[in-house]
Amino acid sequence: MYLAYIPSPSRGELPLGPIPLRGYAFCIIIGVFVAVWLGNKRWIARGGRAGTVADIAVWAVPFGLVGGRLYHVITDYELYFSEGRDWVDAFKIWQGGLGIWGAIALGAVGAWIGCRRRGIPLPAYADAIAPGIAVAQALGRWGNWFNQELYGRETHLPWALHITSDEGGRVPGYYHPTFLYESLWCIGVALLVIWADRRFKLGHGRAFAVYVAAYCVGRAWIEYMRVDDAHHFLGLRLNDWTALIVFLLAVAYIIVSAKKRPGREEIVEPEADVPGGPDAEAASPEAPEAEEPVEGAKAEGTTTEGAKAEGAKTEGAKAEDAKAEGAKAEDKDGATAAPKAAGEDKAAAGASSKSAPTARES
C-alpha cells in the first residue's frame, strides 16, 4: 500500500467549447512565452532592443517544433511506419513526441535566419535565451504528466508516479517520475546559467554552451532510469549516446571560444547603440538642428562686427598718437624760434647804440 504518490490526471485535455485544450500543448505554449519573456529581459540588459527576442522567436519556434517532431519520428519510426500503424499519427504532435535534440538543432536554424535578417550575431542571441529555454523545457515536461508518459522504473518512494492508463503498452503501477526529475533539473540548469553568466561575463555563445553541457549531464542519468522502448547501441540508449556526444562538443566549444574570443560582446544589436539609429532619430527633434546654423551665423556676424569695432578703436588710437606727435613737434619748433628772436633783438639794440655816438661828433 502506498501512503503517498503523485497521481496522474484522469484525462489529458480540458474541453473549451468545440476546441479542447490539451495539457501537452498548453505546457509547451506556456514554456515558449516564459522563454521569450526571460530572454527579452536578458537581451535588453545586454544592450539590445525590446521585442527583438520575440521577433526572432517567430522564426525559431516553428523550426524547433518541426525539428523536435522529426527527431522523434525518425528515432521511433516503428511507432508510425511499422505494420498495423497509421503514418498519419506522425503529424499528431499533441499526442506527445518531441525530441529536444532536433528541436534545438532546427530551432537554431530558424534563429539564425531571424538574426541574419536583423544583423544580430547568433551567439549573443543564444546566450540571452539559454536560461529561458531551460525553463521552457521544465514547463514542457509537465505535458508528459498529462499524457502519462516519460516515467522510469517501478518504485515505492513517496513521490512515485501512479500510472493508471493501459494504452500504448503501458502497465498501470507506481514508477519513478522521470518527467519531474528532468523538470527540476532544467530549473537548476537555468539558475546555473544565470549565475555563471553574471559571475564570469560569458559571451560569444558560451552561456548557451553551459546550458547544453549541464542539460546533457542530467539527461544522461534520467534517460538511464527510463523503461520505455528505445533503440540501444553498445548497451546504452540512443539518447544517452546523443547526450554524451553533445556534452563533449559543448565543453570543447567553451574551451576554444574562451581562448579565441574572450570576454563578452560590447554591442549585441548595432541599431540600439548607433546615435543615428531609429530610436535616436525618433527621440531627437529636428527643429533645433535646423536652427543651429542660423545661430552660428549670428555668432559669426557678431564676431565680425566686434572685429570691426576693435579696428575702429585702433585707428582712433593711431590718430590720437599722430596728434600727440604733432603737438610735440610744434612745441619743439616754438622753443627753437624763441632764442632766435631774442638774439635778433639783441643785435638790433647793439646797432642802435653804435649809431647814436657817431651822430653827436659830427
Give a short synopsis of this structure.
The protein has helices at 23-45, 52-75, 78-81, 100-118, 122-140, 142-146, 178-200, 206-225, 238-260, 270-273, 278-283, 287-361; strands spanning 13-16, 19-22, 161-163, 173-175, 232-233, 236-237. With 362 residues, the protein is mainly alpha-helical.
Describe it for me?
The protein is mostly helical. It has 12 helices and 6 strands. A two-stranded antiparallel ribbon has the order 1-2. Strands 3-4 form a two-stranded antiparallel ribbon. Strand 5 (232-233) and strand 6 form a beta hairpin. The longest helix is centred in the C-terminal third of the chain and has 75 residues, at 287-361. The radius of gyration is 47 Å and the shape is globular. The relative contact order is 0.09. Residues 274-304 and 329-362 have low confidence and may be disordered.
Strand content: under 5%
Helix share of residues? 55-70%
N-to-C series of helices and strands: EEHHHHHHEEHHEEHHHH
Number of helices: 12
The radius of gyration over CA amounts to: 47 Å
**Main β-sheet, in a few words?**
2 strands, antiparallel
Termini gap: 187 Å
Structural class: mainly alpha
User: Total strand count, please?
Assistant: 6
Mean pLDDT: 80
Query: What strand line-up does the widest sheet have?
Result: 1-2
- Per the principal axes of the C-alpha atoms, what is the gross shape? globular
Regions with little confidence, pLDDT below 50 for 5+ residues: 274-304, 329-362
